[in-house]
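G., the chain you wanted modeled:
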Amino acid sequence: MLLEASNLTVVRGGRAILDNVSARFDAPGLVAVIGPNGAGKSTFLSALAGLLKPDAGEARIEGAPVLSIDRRKLAKRRAYLPQNARCEWPISVERVVALGLTPTLPAFGDLNAGDKARVAAMLELCDLSAKQEQAATTLSGGELARTMLGRAMVGDPEILIADEPIAGLDPRHALDAMHRLRAHSAKRRLVIVALHDLGLAAAFADRVIAIKDGAIAADGAADAVFTPALLRDLFEVDARIARDDAGVSIRFVDAGRLGGGAAGGPGL
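Predicted structure as tokens:
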């Protein structure tokens, strides 16, 4: 087992943000974590990544507690992309992406030719080659999101944990990002990603974990997890689900919760 969460519990302000959550992950695989705002998704991902010490339970990589692993060694194996990642310094896009190689670089010296080629390839994959010299602080929200995803992926991590990596991306770049995450998992890598776009979760994930009120409400293949009953329980809206050879499509229906009449919501 590559990564395992055992009885994770995180309490803040007297409330259990995570409540005795357990899950096991192996590679290859792309796992989508879904749930309403405040469900505990980000806390779950942070605990898995070893960035948060739970009040009880632990996360382990191949049996070793994540929090006990040397930080540099952990960074070589696991990359983490936080929600709404920011860049506070006016360094170039190229340099931001290159920071993803920091755990494998020598203490002194510039990037070698191989590393420079990896950065250039990632910039091209993320549609950022034309922006490589631009200061990251001047990017649009979507451009910065692509830059941060490139930084997380450039080191080819064995485990990639990303919290809402497609937030703010237009449809083309959101699809591109999901294709890149899928391709990364296909290289015998584990990708765990929190998503609000259920259509993309259904289309790309091998497995879906639904979280509500700090607990796992469902865990399985998208076809099994995405049911009208579960989506109503998670999001308090009705959903229409269609299944065909292309996979699962989801359409939310406005049942007049805000005072309007019933109407079809956007297809997801």
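Residues 55 and 105 are 34 Å apart (CA to CA).

Shout if anything looks off.
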